[in-house]
Amino acid sequence: MKKRILLCLFAILGLSIACKEEGKADYLPESVGAMNTLTVVIDNELWKSSVGDAIRENYTAAAQGLTWDEALFSVTQIPQQIFSGSIRNTSSVLYVMQDSLNLAHMKSNMYSKPQKVGVIKGRNKQELIDNINTTSAEFIKDFKTLEISKAQKRFEKSLNKEKALVDKFNISMKIPSIYRVGREEDNFVWISREIQKGNMNIIAYTMPENGFQNDSTFAQDIIRMRDSIGDLYIKGSDVAGKNNHMITEKAFTPYVFPAEVSGKKAAEVRGIWEMSAYPMAGPFLTYIINDKENNRKLILEGFVFAPATKKRDYMFELEAILKSVQFNVEEKK
């Protein structure tokens, strides 16, 4: 009998501890921090050394596909003794310290949620540098994924309710209400919003499922596809004797990467657009999604026109919108 009572007491105690730990996670404060910012917690002397150089080389490298160099992250460095209180609630943190251990890993929701804390330790500067270099790609991906999810959650506070994407392509995206549908055609939808010095744009259309069959000409086929869509739908100011429309910048081939969007295989394309007969240009991001269930390739693109303005965060917002796409949201009428 005593044994049974002891077992019951241990069970109740274990349940109580588990509930307290779960409750602690539930009551973590909401994380804070501006889009694409990274708090680097590191001793001042290490930050000024080759260790800091390695961090800057990896985390403030130029983001791809922009009209001028802008860093991947806006970095704020603070020493370890200051990393306390509300500062610990920053959503993206890189914690670097010299220690008796040599390790590197990513932790989630340590002080707030959602939060990612990349922890890097080393017994000397070289071990720290090696760990920074070998983990940067994975950590950057984790930080970016977190930022995307935070942006999408923010969009949900006020979503665009227009049905153009559902009606034309049977898809939905988390598009803020400030965006408006500006043009609808049989196989083309253009959605945009005004910003202080220009506009942000989303376009959607489809291609045949077998529209890209030759890997060796894939990049050139993408350029031809974009340029033909620009010729059909994205016209610029009239220029006497010329057909002025959006094209892919002639000087550089876009970056193309494998990707996954909404659980489907895709290609991610980043580059610069320009007008064929007028000096205007800006960055674009295109996803070519293999939508085999609907026997097509769905093309989603975001592009920005904002002369003499930094565009990293604009493009990041468009990326978050495009990656929110959901398929077959309702039956077509």
Structure description:
It comes from Maribacter orientalis. InterPro entries: DUF4837. The protein has 2 domains: 37-155, Chitobiase, domain 2 (2-Layer Sandwich), CATH 3.30.379; 164-327, Protein Transport Mog1p, Chain A (3-Layer(aba) Sandwich). The protein is 31% helix and 32% strand. The protein has 7 helices and 15 strands. The chain has helices spanning 2-26, 44-47, 50-59, 125-155, 164-169, 218-233, 312-322, and strands at 37-41, 74-78, 92-98, 103-108, 116-122, 171-172, 180-185, 188-195, 198-208, 246-248, 255-261, 264-275, 278-291, 296-305, 326-327. Strand 13 and strand 14 (296-305) form a beta hairpin.
> What's the total number of strands?
15
Give the full name of the CATH homologous superfamily of the largest domain: Mog1/PsbP, alpha/beta/alpha sandwich
Instruction: Using the coordinates shown, work out and report the CATH topology of the largest domain.
Output: Protein Transport Mog1p, Chain A
Report the helical percentage. Answer: 25-40%
Question: How would you describe the oligomerization state of the chains in this entry?
Answer: single chain
Distance between the termini: 68 Å
Order of helix and strand elements from N to C terminus = HEHHEEEEHHEEEEHEEEEEHE
Q: Unreliable segments (pLDDT under 50, ≥5 consecutive)?
A: 5-23
Q: What proportion of the residues form beta strands (DSSP E)? A: 25-35%
- Shape, principal axes of CA atoms: elongated
Which structural class do the helices and strands define? alpha+beta
Rounded to the nearest angstrom, the radius of gyration is 24 Å
What about the largest sheet? 8 strands, antiparallel
Query: Class of the largest domain in CATH?
Result: Alpha Beta
Helix count equals 7
- Give the tally of structural domains: 2
